[in-house]
Amino acid sequence: MQTERIPIYKPYLGEEEREIVAECMKSTWISSQGRYIDDFERGVEAYTGAKHAIAVNNGTVAIHLAMLALNITSGDEVITTNFTYVASSNAILYVGASPVFVDIDPLTWNINVDLIEAKISSKTKAILYTNVYGAPADYTKLKKIADKHDIYLIEDAAESFGATYHDKKSGTLGDISTYSFFGNKTITTGEGGMVLTPHKELAEKIRKLKNQGNSDTVRYYHDILGYNYRMTNIQAAIGVAQLGKIKVILELKKTLQQNYERELETLVDFQKLLENSTSSYWMCSVLFKSAEEKIKVMNALEKENIDTRPFFTPIDELPFYDKVDDCPHSKEISAKGMNLPSFPDLKKTNQDRIIEIIRKNISKS
Ligand SMILES: Cc1ncc(COP(=O)(O)O)c(C=O)c1O
User: Fold this and answer.
1) Can you list the residues of the chain whose pLDDT is less than 70?
2) H or E segment at 102?
3) Ligand 1 centroid to 58 CA: how many Å?
4) Which of 8, 182, 280 to mutate to test the pocket of ligand 1 (most atoms within 8 A of CB)?
5) Looking at ligand 1, which residue's alpha carbon is closest to its atom 12?
6) Of 136, 143, 331, 344, which one has the greatest count of Cβ atoms within 10 A?
7) Residues contacting ligand 1 via CB (< 6 Å)
8) In this structure, which CATH number among 1.10.630.10, 3.90.1150.10, 3.40.640.10, 1.10.10.200 belongs to the domain 15-102+111-243?
9) What is the C-alpha to C-alpha distance for residues 330 and 336, in angstroms, rounded to an integer?
10) Residue 288 CA, ligand 1 centroid: distance in Å
11) SS3 of 191, please?
12) Integer angstrom CA distances of residue 341 from 58, 237, 282, 285
């Protein structure tokens, strides 16, 4: 008999989410007004220490809003990593600007900060970086470069909710930071996202942009070209319940990562964390000696009804981006890496099975 499929991820939902959604339905405030939007935004501000948090309807539009708020437009360049989820760079294209790809560090898998300055030109407006798979990038160096060249720093923290860098929470490490609350994220609202910033004027502009450019004083008058990027009260209610569990979720995910590392450390490589930083361990990830070994292990797990995910395709290899030839590490890591089941309540017996199958299908040398 086929055993039940182990997915790569499933949200950590319980009675709290069911109750709060029911309460929301009862109140009839199911659209984008209602108390939970405010509760969720203020809750995330309190948790992260961010000055301004603005709920939106997904993580992709959060980055689009960051571009719009910073007036990044056609003819501008944005420096970014070649190894991330596609939404990051797509937001640069949405505003007509050009992404300038930088290779990753082969150990941290995050943007190699030492390669950035050579790519800065008179057209550069910002650096958009990702904390890939939940591990913080080198913020101190990124901030130094951004300040030196008077350009903006945008943090795509979609994968790093709960991660820390020198005691600061991911989500506070940029002029603008963004989260995703998609179903597979550390906390989820189904679909959802957030924009965070320490700058009051930017926060006000982002609120206006996400809400059809509505005037603050005249009803049905729109000062600027805006968008409907609003989160619903139901989504925010789920977010409030999820935020209440963040400590437990992070602990469970850390234990999963530690188990994978302890049992597999002689056979595969793991993402290296910077000193004084903690990961959200969004996706537990392993790097094999070769692409062939990765495929062999992936197939073996699939045969046992266990889901895995290949690493992101380097962005420049997607058909609507220009190819680059100076990002060898993003290509190599992409080819050899794989994400493993990483959901908080993955049972230890199931994780042991996953580990055993990986061990069996790997050559030791
Ligand atoms: C790094 C990164 N950026 C942006 C996004 C986009 O978020 P969403 O799927 O909520 O639009 C994701 C999520 O999938 C992501 O992993």
Assistant:
1) 1-2, 365
2) strand 98-102
3) 8
4) 182
5) 158
6) 136
7) 58-60, 84-85, 87-88, 130, 156, 158-159, 180, 182, 193
8) 3.40.640.10
9) 10
10) 25
11) coil
12) 23, 27, 10, 9
Rounded to the nearest whole angstrom, what is the distance from the C-alpha of residue 291 to the centroid of ligand 1?
A: 25
Could you tell me the strand order of the sheet in which 164-165 lies?
Answer: 168-169, 164-165, 277-278
The predicted-structure confidence for 307-335, as pLDDT tens digits, reads as follows 999 999 999 999 999 999 999 999 999 99
Return the structure tokens found at 214.
Answer: 């509505």
Domain definitions of the chain by residue range: 15-102+111-243, 246-360
- The 10s digit of each residue's pLDDT in 210-267 is 999 999 899 999 999 999 999 999 999 999 999 999 999 999 999 999 999 999 999 9
The domain 246-360 having CATH identifier 3.90.1150.10: the answer here is yes
